[in-house]
Amino acid sequence: MSDNHHFIPPLKYYIGTFIALLILTAVTVWVAQFDLGPLNEPVALAIASLKAGLVLGFFMGLHWDKGPGKLFFVSSVVAMLIFILFTMTDIAFRGDTDAMESGYHTINSPVKVIKSLPSH
Amino acid sequence: MSNQLVSQEFIPHEVAHHFDDAHQEFESAKIGMWAFLAQEVLFFSGLFVAYIVFRYLYPDMFVEANHHLSWQLGTINTVILIMSSFTMVMSVRSAQLSQKKATFNYLVATLVFAGCFMVIKGIEYSSKIQHGLLPAKWFSAEGVSETLHLFYGIYFMLTGVHGLHVLVGMGLIIWLMIRTKRGEFYADYYTPLEMVGLYWHLVDLIWIFLFPLLYLVG
Question: For residue B186, which phi and psi values (nearest 5 degrees)?
Fold first, then answer.
């Protein structure tokens, strides 16, 4: 068993990641004060993705990982993006190619609290 | 490390008979853990898609809802989880260096941070419940957007399922503390610590996305 020596990452990677995550948290809170219009969400998600990359790479060790961990994780993220893409192509463009009967297929009709409906 | 040290302070780990060596045992556990974490991403993706769909349909209502949540508490909880991730990774590192006391202390710190996170979450929940900002038929707030109950359905599901993961993580950390105290983890064997660490970082990772989506973008 003594031939089994694990690779121990240098401490500076953990401390650096920790500090970078705190700075990025401050940045995302600071940026949220400004109204960037359509860029609000992309900027917030870009910072969150950068933070996620740091956690995955160093805290979770994917940067040094030789196993299939990276492949597994990237696959699940790709599957999630397909899920989002296909759902949103329906939600965002429903009725654009075929005219909808008013109030029939509309997904954006007002939603009522269940208890206020007569059936409840 | 010397074998003398193992016998004094630590219980030597026996490799399970169906593995060739400790390295193969460790790598197998890691593959299984990453498969589980990939599943976790898919599991949460359903809730994220619900968020995206309803945010797309009711953008104004989401902006209103963002102002109901305290970004200060959200920020504090984000910092707490980042600190807990750091202490977790330091605990694993201490085990890799066969530092029993440090491994244990970093686990205690992680558990305390997790507890703080849940307390702040509880404060937020109780204020939402007081104001009747609840999902579906339990929603009773007055003078707000007609569709706001949709946001709170998503909010309570996302943060609730995430909070459940934190509670499970706290249970696992207590289990690790007991085993660390017994001296089961040292340089040649710390697989459970590493796996719970990965799980804990994923819980942090999900919060990293929940925080701007629920508290900030509005």
Answer: -155, -175
CA distance B172 to B197: 10
Q: Calculate the CA B118 to chain-centre distance.
A: 11
- The pair of structure tokens assigned to B40 is 């976790």
Closest C-alpha to A60, from B76, B49, B208: B208
- B41 interfacial to chain A (CB closer than 8 Å): yes
SS3 A102: coil
Q: Read off the pLDDT of residues B74-121 as tens digits, 9 standing for 90 and up.
A: 999 999 999 999 999 999 999 999 999 999 999 999 999 999 999 999
Check A83 against B49: CB less than 8 A apart: yes
Residues B204 and B110: their CA atoms lie apart, in Å, by: 12
Which residue of chain B is at minimal alpha-carbon distance from A43?
A: B217
Contacts of A119 in chain B (CB under 8 A): none
For position A3, what pLDDT does the model report?
Answer: 45
Q: Mutual orientation of helices B100-130 and B148-182 as an angle, nearest 10°?
A: 160
Give every residue of chain A whose pLDDT is below 70, as ranges.
1-5, 95-120
Burial class (CB in 10 A: 0-12, 13-18, 19+), A93: exposed
d(CA A89, CA A86): 5
* pTM score above 0.80: yes
pLDDT tens, position by position, B47-85? 999 999 999 999 889 988 888 899 999 999 999 999 999
